[in-house]
Specification:
This protein has 179 residues and is an alpha+beta fold. The chain contains six helices and eight strands; from the N terminus they run E-E-E-H-H-E-E-H-H-H-H-E-E-E.
Amino acid sequence: MERLQIRIAEDLTQVRGACVICRRTFRVFVRKTVEDAIRLLQRSFKIHCRQQHGIVVKELPAGCGIDYIVENLSLPAYVFTRSSRKLIAANDRFREVMGYTESETKALSLEDLRSPEDIPVLFQSLSENFGEGVVQSRYRTKGGRSLRVRLRYRDLIVVHNQNEIPDACFVVLTQLEAA
């Protein structure tokens, strides 16, 4: 799944796209060629990503997926699935803050990141479908240190290992403090 989903109207009058992070839609009317409209749409998308998500997009690689999106964020971020509660993507900044290696991160679940007393609250929040929001939470690093974090999250559908995952959740950690 690309970060910019492009759809061409059946009558070839417009090209539409949507950001998979925030679901903002873009629309460009075809004036000369469809290719020109797609280039214009991609330029708008690059500006949007830089301003709204802090992602600098030089090119949109064919088939770029959720790993590419997460890795290009300047803040600690990860993606997990609600059903399994397993992390499917995380960036270097997240691994640095939490003290895990890349291979260790691939085996993590949300329970591994939280204090035991916070797990019932975690399960309760996962059972409710909020879609997107900002919450305060406590995280536990690999070394056992407790962090207070403010996190932004958004539900989305991703393609991971060539499988579509409809219950993924994108999380960005902000305002990290020792608890």
